[in-house]
Amino acid sequence: MEPSETCCLGLKGNVCSYPRGKVLGGSSVINAMLYVRGNTRDYNSWAEAGNVGWDYESVLKQYEKFEGCQDSNCGLYGKNGELEITTYKYQEPIRDILEDAYKELGYYREYSEEKPLGFWDSFVTINKGTRTNTAKSFIEPIKDRKNLYVALNAEVSQLIVDKSDKTVKGVEVKINEKILKLNAKKEVILSAGAINSPQILMNSGIGPKEHLESLGIDVVTNLRVGENLQDHAIFSFAISVDNSVIKAKTDLDALDDIYQYFMHRSGPLSGVELLNFMGYVNTKNDSIFPDLQLFHTAMGADNVDALEEMARATNLPDELTEAFKESSKHSSNLFITLQVMNPKSTGKILLRSTDPFDKPKIFPNYFSDENNEDLEVLLNGIKLSKKLIQTKTLTQYKAKLVEYTLPNCKEYDFDTDEFWKCSVRNVASHLYHQVGTCKMGPERDPAAVVDPRLRVHGIKGVRVIDGSIMPTVTSGNTNAPIIMIGEKGAELIKEDWLQNIHEEL
Ligand SMILES: Cc1cc2nc3c(=O)[nH]c(=O)nc-3n(C[C@H](O)[C@H](O)[C@H](O)COP(=O)(O)OP(=O)(O)OC[C@H]3O[C@@H](n4cnc5c(N)ncnc54)[C@H](O)[C@@H]3O)c2cc1C
């Protein structure tokens, strides 16, 4: 990402880390395996904005088609689809202690997509102790089909566009340092994710006129490609708790875990620990829909390796890592991660140059909304967590906020509102849920890039099918909704081409 004036100010390099899966199966191969559909309002609001066929009832049918829940207690989740998912519940005492503490505060209810305020142990993309992903679940079973060819290590630079009739004819792709031109018999489907799908469109002259012209790229179609970048900003902090709550692992425990995993595909290494115990809260108490999602991570005392790894992966400044390490010398750490559910801040993707293989510029713009509503949600979340620490349940385990200072926030006393605001702008990050940069919307929507059938407006022969088409980010982790977009997109393609064939006959 590009350095920002509103976020990630105190992280190493002054940027948030921005990983994505550059691999067959994309980010589903490297993600945290939490499987969350999102709630009714997410999809009904897409439909209300003119996206016919994307209401909750309609998308539910798509979910049920591809979900392959492997358990006996799948509830309303699909059982016969390609994507294996399972239920999972962390077995260490901290899981139930947290449930009791949230109950004491009156926040604990069973979560469902229809009644989305509450807590649950989310499904996970794990089957028999092993990660599932979109490549394994959807491509592996059909890899020998005669009409499927997969090119690995292949990088698409741009679309081949016939400007005379505004039709996409194929793609230009680099394989083994050779640039090939591949023609499409019917149409091109672009699924390069929320950063690269807009990049490929803009490389091809499809994008904001003023931006393309500033680089000297011929404009084929003037669309707001790359805008409306949405993502879930997060803020994490630590609570020290008595060592009896979170068991510290000895080297021998670690060996046992490894044995258990390799021999039986079970034990701690076969799950996601406490991460899928998540909560949804409306911090303003003004709706039956959440504005905050909460995640929890438990770390036993003296787990310096894990702390350093966390710090490395998220660019944390040394001062913060040292505070966590210091606290972990005497006690266990419970990390609470607060996530802004429906962000008001939006960012954008721009091209860096006319070289189609150059990395695009990413401007996430977290906490840039005019009224600071996103920051406010996190502040409310911090207040809620402080109440959590004061519950009878957690006080008996000596729960206490881990204090820290940051170089950019030295003028504020720890735990004042000003300190937290400063801290959020400095070390808050995101949960890698980038979406929205090829926004779906009807023709009347000036910000729309694709129509509700995922065809790019104003040009024939190309659809976008990935997270970039979301008009607004869903309320929760984005992998499941994006797989649903893939399933729905496949149905739209089949409907359209079968209809063409019928008309020809
Ligand atoms: C570290 C991490 C943890 C996450 N944890 C979770 C989680 O626990 N639960 C959850 O629901 N979500 C999670 N997410 C988010 C979720 O995985 C993503 O939202 C989702 O996978 C995005 O899907 P996509 O198809 O839109 O894009 P991607 O998954 O990014 O797929 C894009 C694909 O296009 C390919 N590509 C890009 N450019 C080109 C090009 N020019 N030529 C050819 N190929 C190209 C890429 O290699 C990739 O295979 C996480 C993401 C990350 C990065």
UniProtKB/TrEMBL annotation:
Which cofactors does this gene product need? FAD
From the UniProt annotation, give the residues forming the signal peptide: none
- Which amino acid positions bind FAD, per UniProt? 23, 156, 467
Ranges for domain Glucose-methanol-choline oxidoreductase N-terminal = 21-44, 193-207
Q: Which UniProt keywords apply?
A: FAD, Flavoprotein
Q: Which is a Pfam family this sequence falls into?
A: GMC_oxred_N
Alphabetized InterPro entries for the sequence: FAD/NAD-bd_sf, GMC_OxRdtase, GMC_OxRdtase_N, GMC_OxRtase_C
Q: Carries keyword Flavoprotein?
A: yes
- The parts of the chain that form a coiled coil are none
- Chain segments annotated as transmembrane: none
Q: Which GO terms describe its molecular function?
A: flavin adenine dinucleotide binding; oxidoreductase activity, acting on CH-OH group of donors
Name the family the entry cites.
Belongs to the GMC oxidoreductase family.
Under the heading PANTHER family, the entry gives:
FI02019P, GLUCOSE-METHANOL-CHOLINE GMC OXIDOREDUCTASE
Record's protein name:
Glucose-methanol-choline oxidoreductase N-terminal domain-containing protein
> What is the originating organism of this protein?
Ignelater luminosus
